[in-house]
TrEMBL record:
Domain of life: Eukaryota
Keyword Methyltransferase among record annotations: no
A GO cellular component annotation in the UniProt record: chromosome, centromeric region
The protein's name in its UniProt record: Sister chromatid cohesion protein Dcc1
A GO biological-process term: maintenance of mitotic sister chromatid cohesion
Biased composition (Low complexity): 321-332
Amino acid sequence: MATQQAEGGVPFSMVHNMQQFRLLELPAELLELIDTPNPPPLSIKSQAPSTVYGAPNTKPAYAVLCTPDKTFQLRQVQTSNSVLIARPALEAHGNEMPCPTTCAIASCTATLELHPADASAVAYLEEALLVYDIVDGDADTAGNGKTKTDTFSNVPLSDEQCESGWGDLLAFEFVGSCWRPSANTLSQVWKSINAAATAEGVRLDQQFLAEDILNHVRDEGFPATLVLGILQRLASDGQDRKGPWSCLHRTKTVQFVGRTLLEAKRGSADYLTAEFLDTWKDNLPESWRGYAELNAIEGSFDLPSPTTIRFKNGSGAANESKPSAPKAGSSSRKWHERFGRARNG
């Protein structure tokens, strides 16, 4: 240990084996937050290592500091100044009395700065979540055992930003894992919701008990958490989305149904525009059929010919489905059958 002392000054020393430190520069808004009587928890997060075609992904991850609703990216900034971290100590040389001194225990050549990161969690969640796709009444339910909390812990964004992305994807928990529905699945679930409401005389554009719809749709084997997620997404503005009552917003519902039906046909032959419009109208509440017009989903479609229409890639929040082996029990679709018989009669 080296020691220097000037006449009338405080002795200063430096340890031979410096410790490793990084100084973190906090912005004013974060300082105010942690200085409150009940500061919220802070966390440092990073994306979990991933694999690409079975091999580890070498793409470097980065760390962020999160409050419950905000994210700050950590950036290392090199400095040419001599920055030392010191602590008080008592030192004695030979038979001298111990005297107070300042001892440098670390030298910091870089500091960490915080920069706000206002990003969407959708891309991270699309990578992390399994796709729930129903084919011929069956779906692969072999999950990965990761809960919603597990999933959020590996997304480098705040919990509030993760919740927003979760809602955008209509993600849900089911059989011990987290999923994002394919457009094909969303199309089937919505058809079941609309058919059950019609068969039971439930007006979706007025106050109704969500449990009434849920009970009927659950009989067809659809995850209850997904059904509730759709109803909450389409709820009218100002509606208590966590409450027992619901009332669907006309514009949200018309757009959601049109885009979902169109995306569910992606990858197959181009849709005849007239057929698509008829299908769209048939899957809306009776009073909203007249609002099924192409301008309601502007930007979500291409017109490859004067008579055909197809989904425009990258324009929707629904997800691309992946091939899956059927493992879940099949659905009876009895409410669709009842609705079909009622319409035909």
